[in-house]
């Protein structure tokens, strides 16, 4: 099809001909290009709160400059700054310095609706200041001002906001505030303040600001669960924005992170399961989670990572496994009720340095053998073996002493496959992972100032980080909320547990059980691998250090209520070692049974052909305690082993034939 001007038009003045050409060109574009949906035509810039700064290198220059650039390119290029009653001209002047051609500063209390509507007509950008989101909702929802703001967005303009002004950009928002601890205990607490149907710039989305600063992860997770469970949403995306941090969102859904802190994008998927009921602890599993820092870009609707900073590092998937034993953790001393539930013990060992009272333990009916802690003996095999002579080993020692003991290789060999159960204190849990923080309660600005002190843990629970008291004290909220991600980044860990005063937990051969916790435990699960990067910005004037904010680009979020459990590791049974693939010698230790044993067991060896060999057994000190020649038959060869002259403990069986060696761990329990 050919479209041209009417012949008579060629004799018209040039200006008329140009106007006619543009008219017909516009008609052609209208006919050939389908009209866009109104939703999503514009741009969005949201900040998590915190003071902007015009200084060179300030965190706010990029996102606020981006906002000003977008606004000046639409309509009359005017930016309208709105608030309830803030008449300060600092922000309008800041936008002007960033390139805005016209900025109008208006308030709900100081200007009429007509004045606000007149400014919005033809505007290219609208910015909502912080304060209280209820002022915007009460004044404008369902009225002409809301429609006028939407019109700016639908015409390709940009809508921005900070703090409360950012929270009203989503499809869902809250009119009031409840804490993470309250909502993790009861997702319905304060949810009568949940609202929808205002602006709706980001469909199926809820925004929360001052995210780490005010300890709000539990709040956002609970509200997402409420929206799906009670309000009937088929899916929900939560965006938590730290203070002095912003997101720039493009019409295609691309979200760019800028600023000193993190942006936390949480997305429900078909695999997400919400367990939310009134007056019950929150539970959920399989929520897609992305903790992103400056320079990352993500598809808000798809969760696809679109860009990353140049210094981002890859953390490969976790391939290890955890200790093969049972452990119990208590916040307080072992009392009679706890001990009575385990009254079938025949002997208990108490490794003691006086950390908590042991009166109930020592006066209980089950015999207790007390062993004073001795830091000089933590590598001594004989001393360590004596700790495993009972049914239960109580570790009444300090976290520092436990760190030393659990770092001991002979001790770890003894625990792997041990039938003796360990009784620990919850204060031991943080030092058992890859790393821990030491100064989270020094003051409320440790993470913000970049002063978090971290130390390597024992790695007894490999790949993990544990942070307790996350929501126990609002003063230190940012420190405790920032610590899991910062520690994962610092030690390339894969799982972070965030609890609030763990009361009683158990670990049984790879499974974590949250027997009794004050509030639900939040788990960041990045075992499939992720990208990580640290904030490049100094957030505080009190130090010249970059903020302790780190990215964990991909993961799953789980929230486990009291009484729930979660599989941390897939642990192979000690009794059936996995045979090596394509064994060059054509033989393998097929099975050891029974294992543990007392005092005899059978080692079953599979061979592809007959061969001469020998078998050896070593204790944890590396001393050979048994050796015999072997004649392996084709097929299965059983070998009886009796260690009646040896003490309880872990031993290593080594079989050698045709120049190749296979080995397995066995446990003697006397």
From TrEMBL:
GO biological process, one term: proteolysis
Statement: the UniProt record of this protein carries the keyword Secreted: no
InterPro entries associated with the record: Class_I_gatase-like (IPR029062), Peptidase_S51 (IPR005320), Secre_tail (IPR026444)
Ranges that cross the membrane: none
Entry keyword annotation includes Chloroplast: no
Domain called Secretion system C-terminal sorting: residue spans: 592-664
SUPFAM superfamilies: Class I glutamine amidotransferase-like
Molecular function as annotated in GO: serine-type peptidase activity
Family membership: Belongs to the peptidase S51 family.
UniProt keywords, alphabetically: Hydrolase, Protease, Serine protease
Domain of life: Bacteria
Name of the protein this chain belongs to: Cyanophycinase
């Amino acid at each position: 099809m050919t479209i041209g001007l009417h012949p008579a038009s060629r004799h018209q003045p040039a200006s008329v001909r140009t106007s006619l050409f543009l008219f017909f060109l516009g008609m052609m574009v209208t006919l050939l290009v389908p009209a866009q949906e109104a939703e999503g035509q514009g741009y969005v810039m949201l900040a998590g709160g915190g003071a902007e700064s015009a200084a060179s290198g300030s965190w706010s220059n990029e996102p606020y400059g981006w906002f000003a650039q977008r606004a000046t390119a639409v309509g009359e290029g005017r930016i309208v700054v709105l608030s309830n009653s803030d008449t300060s001209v600092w922000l309008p002047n800041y936008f002007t310095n960033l390139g805005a051609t016209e900025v109008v500063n208006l308030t709900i209390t100081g200007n009429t609706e007509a004045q606000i509507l007149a400014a919005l007509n033809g505007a290219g950008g609208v910015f909502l200041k912080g304060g209280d989101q209820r002022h915007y909702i009460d004044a404008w929802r369902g009225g002409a001002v809301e429609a006028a703001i939407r019109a700016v967005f639908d015409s390709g303009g940009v809508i921005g906001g900070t703090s409360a002004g950012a929270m009203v950009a989503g499809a869902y928002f809250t009119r009031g505030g409840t804490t993470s601890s309250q909502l993790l205990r009861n997702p319905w607490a304060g949810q009568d303040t949940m609202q929808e149907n205002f602006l709706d710039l980001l469909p199926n989305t809820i925004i929360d600001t001052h995210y780490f600063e005010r300890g709000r992860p539990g709040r956002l997770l609970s509200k997402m669960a409420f929206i799906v469970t009670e309000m009937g949403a088929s899916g929900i995306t939560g965006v938590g924005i730290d203070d002095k941090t912003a997101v720039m969102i493009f019409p295609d859904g691309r979200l760019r992170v800028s600023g000193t802190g993190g942006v936390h994008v949480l997305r429900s998927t078909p695999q997400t399961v919400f367990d939310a009921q009134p007056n019950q602890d929150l539970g959920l599993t399989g929520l897609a989670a992305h903790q992103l820092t400056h320079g990352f870009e993500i598809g808000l609707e798809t969760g696809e990572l679109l860009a990353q900073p140049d210094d981002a590092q890859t953390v490969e998937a976790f391939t290890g496994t955890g200790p093969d034993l049972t452990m119990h953790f208590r916040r307080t001393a072992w009392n009679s009720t706890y001990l009575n539930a385990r009254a079938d013990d025949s002997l208990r060992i108490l490794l003691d340095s006086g950390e908590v009272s042991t009166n109930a333990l020592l006066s209980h009916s089950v015999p207790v053998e007390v062993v004073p802690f001795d830091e000089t003996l933590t590598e001594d095999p004989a001393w360590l073996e004596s700790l495993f002579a009972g049914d239960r080993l109580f570790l009444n020692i300090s976290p520092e002493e436990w760190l030393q003991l659990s770092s001991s290789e002979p001790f770890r060999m003894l625990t792997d496959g041990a039938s003796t159960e360990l009784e620990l204190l919850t204060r031991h849990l943080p030092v058992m992972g890859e790393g821990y923080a030491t100064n989270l309660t020094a003051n409320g600005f440790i993470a913000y100032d970049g002063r978090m002190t971290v130390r390597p843990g024992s790695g007894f629970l490999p790949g993990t980080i544990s942070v307790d008291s996350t929501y126990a004290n609002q003063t230190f909220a940012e420190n405790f909320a920032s610590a899991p991600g910062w520690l994962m980044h610092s030690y390339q860990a894969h799982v972070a547990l965030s609890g609030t005063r763990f009361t009683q937990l158990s670990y049984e051969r790879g499974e974590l059980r949250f027997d009794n916790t004050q509030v639900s435990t939040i788990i960041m699960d990045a075992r499939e691998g992720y990208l990580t990067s640290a904030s490049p910005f100094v957030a505080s004037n009190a130090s010249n250090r970059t903020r302790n904010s780190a990215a964990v680009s991909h993961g799953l979020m789980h929230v486990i209520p009291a009484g729930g459990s979660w599989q941390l590791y897939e642990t192979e049974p000690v009794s059936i070692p996995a045979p090596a693939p394509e064994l060059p010698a054509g033989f393998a230790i097929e099975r050891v049974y029974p294992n543990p044993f007392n005092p005899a067991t059978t080692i079953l060896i599979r061979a592809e052909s007959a061969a001469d060999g020998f078998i050896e057994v070593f204790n944890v000190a590396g001393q050979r305690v048994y050796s015999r020649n072997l004649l392996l038959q084709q097929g299965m060869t059983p070998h009886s082993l009796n260690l009646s002259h040896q003490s309880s403990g872990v031993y290593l069986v080594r079989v050698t034939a045709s120049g190749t060696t296979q080995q397995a761990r066995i446990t003697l329990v006397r």
